[in-house]
Amino acid sequence: MKKILVIDDTDFIREDIATTLQFEGYETMTAEDGLAGLEKAKSEHPDLILCDVSMPRLDGFGALEQIRKTDGIRTVPFIFLTAKAEKADMRRGMELGANDYLTKPFTTDELINAVNTQFAKAQDIEEKIGREVGIIVDKLGANISYALPHEFRTPLTGIISSTDMIDMVANDIKNGRGVDYAELEGIAHDIRISAERLRHLTENFLVFTQLQNIASKPNEVALLRKQMTEGGILGMVEDIFNMQATDIERTGDLNIAVEDSEISMDSKDIYKIIQEVASNALKFSKSGSPITVTGRIEGSMYHLCVNDKGCGINDSDIPNLGVPFAQFDRISNEQQGAGLGMAIIKKLLEIYNGSITIQSVLNQETTVIVSVPTATPLADRLEQH
Q1: What stretches of 74-107 show up as alpha helix (H) in DSSP?
Q2: N or C end of the chain: which has fewer CB within 10 A?
Q3: Residue 178, by phi and psi: left (phi above 0), alpha (psi -120 to 50) or beta?
Q4: Is residue 383 scored above 70 in pLDDT?
Q5: Quick count: other Cβ atoms within 10 Å of Cβ 267?
């Protein structure tokens, strides 16, 4: 039996909704404000949450924000119950991860339809994900069975929520209300962010499976180890870090002092490593905190060092970084991930006889040192021929 949590500070509304849903065959529980609702959600793990917006102690927005950060309930479908005067605030709710909203007063049919629609959407997403990744899930083991479906679900939910917002705008136009172009631009931005996350996850998943295959073939590994970058590493580092920092308005946080050198790797592979290291440094540190990037040559190895003053990593978790789909303390840092980026880095370094060192102090800083072979200098290559 599906469990539904109803959060509303008005007693008769809360109890009326709960009773109506019970008659429809749902198990219900109630809470009188956002704080009580958050605690009940944590302990009871409902399948869906109906929540008022304006409430004492913790309002609906605050409750939703906390729920989306809490392991075990952060993907629970969430429907806002809002007064007509609050409708303009619903974009904020959708940005926080709400799945739908009902405008008070609503009919019994509208309530039941909204609830049933969310359960149908959740089931549809699960079935689509299962069909697409089921075969690969069996091959890569138990960790993926939780992490990958969740990681696909999160951006898909964002896209679906944004399309719901478009439906609302279309309905406003149909009823003779004006178009809020700023709102449309915001919805388009939300769709792009969710789609980009989905694209990145899919790309990394494919790259990782390809690397697993290559690593098992000595002849292909030997050929890769004869590759070298087209040009030096300096331009790559500056381009990648500045491009990613520009997207989130953090170029002022960067301090880059990197020696140049050709690397004994295929250009696209060292590029991928730098991309993932840069992404992690920016993702797990706050805007305004410095990120220092240095690079130096020592003998036949090039050492790229990236230090961020971010959330840090538990000592016990460091040895497991790079295990695909392993889950660490991402939720408290408001980040999600399947662990594929670090898995790709480690697999590439394994193929190219490189290494990675991670040093971290929890809640203070993390330093990542990527060591890769330098290419034979041009003069030496000419002498060999």
Answers
A1: 90-96
A2: C
A3: beta
A4: no
A5: 16
pLDDT of residue 337: 52
Q: 182-231 pLDDT, tens per residue? A: 777 888 888 877 777 777 778 888 888 889 888 888 899 999 999 999 88
How many residues in the chain? 385
CA gyration radius, the chain: 25
Tokens 């331009």, located at residue: 235
146 pLDDT band, cuts 50/70/90, is: very low
3 state DSSP class of 80: strand
Is residue 111 within 8 A of residue 17, CB to CB? The reply is yes
Strands 291-298 and 3-7: unpaired
Question: Could you tell me if 119 and 2 are in contact, meaning their C-beta atoms sit under 8 angstroms apart?
Answer: yes
The dihedral over CA atoms of 239, 243, 244, 246, expressed in degrees to the nearest 10, equals: 140
User: Mean of the pLDDT values across residues 115-128?
Assistant: 80
Can you list the alpha helix ranges (DSSP code H) found in the chain? 11-23, 34-44, 60-67, 90-96, 108-140, 142-174, 181-215, 218-224, 233-247, 267-283, 340-351, 378-384
Judged against a pLDDT cut of 60, whether residue 150 lies above it is answered with no
Q: What pLDDT does 139 receive?
A: 46
Run of H or E including 101: strand 100-104
DSSP 284-305: TS-TTS-EEEEEEEETTEEEEE
State CA 150 to chain mean position distance: 10
* Of 185, 133, 126, 187, nearest in space to 156 by CA: 126
| Residues 332, 196: Cα–Cα separation, whole Å | 23
Domains of the chain listed by start with CATH number: 3-206 (3.40.50.2300), 227-384 (3.30.565.10)
Closest CA to 366 of 327, 316, 314, 308: 308
